Amino acid sequence: MSAPRNTILRLINASQHSACPCHGGRSHVHPHSQAQAVNQLRNFATPVDKVEKEYAFEVAASNLRFGDGVTAEVGMDLKNMKARKVGVFTDPNVAKLKPMKAAIAALESQTDLPFEVYDRVVAEPTEDSWRNAIAWARKHNFSHFLAVGGGSVIDTAKAANLFTVYHDSDLMDFVNAPVGKGLPVSQPLRPLIAVPTTAGTGSETTGAAILDITSRSFKTGIASRALKPVLGIVDTQNTESCSVELQISAGLDVLFHSMESYTAIPYTERTPRPANPVLRPAYQGSNPVADIFSLWALRATVQYLPRIHKNGTSDYEARKQMLLASSFAGVGFGNAGVHLCHGMSYPISGLNKKGPKYKHPGYQVDGPIIPHGVSVALTGPAVFQFTAPSAPDRHREALAIFNSTSASDPSIARIPDSDLGEHLYESIARFLDSLSVPRGLKAVGYTRSDVDKLVEGTIPQRRVLDLAPGIGDVAGFDGKEHLTKIIENSLEY
């Protein structure tokens, strides 16, 4: 089957997108030939008879309530929902802190509102930790769920909710293809309220849930609109007890959620078009609605995350704005998707447990950990050097934000398109330095000998790689060559 002419042109453009000069001694990525791009069709996780481009996008996000002390309302919310029995999820650290105490007090303030607490959620959840939480939830037949914690807690509650409804299904039935079967979620789930205690994942707004597949040393997850909470309660009091290191790592996740979703391939270039709207993925490509949320979050993060690094938890305004930015970025990437930084972060985090065994300061965990936001940031400069030629205007806008100016400023406007990637590399690296982020993969213990393993752990992340400019929109191409160069360029900066 021959591709339509506009598809062919897009594939040619995509194959040429990285043909800008090399700068600063860093190796650049050479594109595949035009002929290879034109003559091949991408391999899809779900085979289709006819490949057509997408022509629509959907916007889905949880209802959000934002305010100082609004956790106190969660008991009334669940009572209003006529909850029969509530499954409450948290982790051992949050269980001792003010957010969880406020949530329990809110539940206890209501008459005839039974609940059970699961406080064994682990940071960076694994298959085993999810299976334990799911088994516990299945025993209780909860009518509603409440998650109080960071992204790990909220994602675990999403999984417990899903597999309470799909009582006989296996975990891998819904894990993203090609790692799992990637089956669609067609049954309605129980109502879930999410109370985030970190300003990072935006999980209170999305239908994504991430876990570590330890047997394969990388992360992946489940992505379906059905998983999104019915309500996210964003309470400015709930990040007071976070360490500065945790707030910085969480904020880095916001930074790259917004950057990646804004620069993902456009929704109109995603193929194949689903045969039924229910099959339209949660991650659809950049689109006009997601763009608004992503850009706002990017500006806020560049402005306020350095204040948290400088002032810590005492800077109420910075904490407030980062909570807003986290939710805004969640709406953005929850509908557009992320791409290369996140795709490569999954093996960076997963392989660490067997390899470098790096343990980031400020985290109260027993084993090694490269926090998610840090693992995403390590490749940030090299990723956006690579993607810049795919959409110069968008990358110019991002560069202006990092440089605290506008795209019309002569210092930004006069930069040739071919040089944008190098400038963005330097600006992102400088920003990360200001937050004391480890300077590349070598700083967390990886060496050049680990590059191939990190690439092999990235290639199965099709859910996000298929949204990556120069990889997801190039026919018959898994991106291995480009991924190798990006990771090599991320070893140090």
Describe this structure in words.
The chain has 493 residues and is of the alpha/beta class. 42% of the residues lie in helices and 8% in strands. The chain is built from 18 helices and eight strands. The strands form two sheets. The chain has a six-stranded parallel beta sheet, sandwiched between helices. Helix 6 links the parallel strand 4 (144-149) and strand 5 (192-196). Helix 12 runs antiparallel to helix 15 (420-434) and helix 13 (392-402) runs parallel beside helix 15 (420-434). The longest helix has 24 residues, at 288-311. The radius of gyration is 22 Å and the shape is globular.
Task: Write the topology of this structure.
Layout: H1 5-16, H2 34-39, E1 63-67, H3 74-80, E2 86-89, H4 98-108, E3 115-118, H5 127-140, E4 144-149, H6 151-165, E5 192-196, E6 208-213, E7 218-223, E8 231-235, H7 244-263, H8 288-311, H9 316-336, H10 340-352, H11 372-377, H12 380-387, H13 392-402, H14 410-413, H15 420-434, H16 451-458, H17 462-465, H18 480-488
Parallel strand pairs: 1-8, 2-3, 2-4, 4-5, 5-8
Antiparallel strand pairs: 6-7
Helix pairs in contact: 3-4, 5-6, 7-8, 7-9, 8-9, 10-16, 12-15, 13-15, 16-18
Subcellular location: Mitochondrion
Catalytic activity: 4-hydroxybutanoate + 2-oxoglutarate = (R)-2-hydroxyglutarate + succinate semialdehyde; (S)-3-hydroxybutanoate + 2-oxoglutarate = (R)-2-hydroxyglutarate + acetoacetate
Main location: mitochondrion
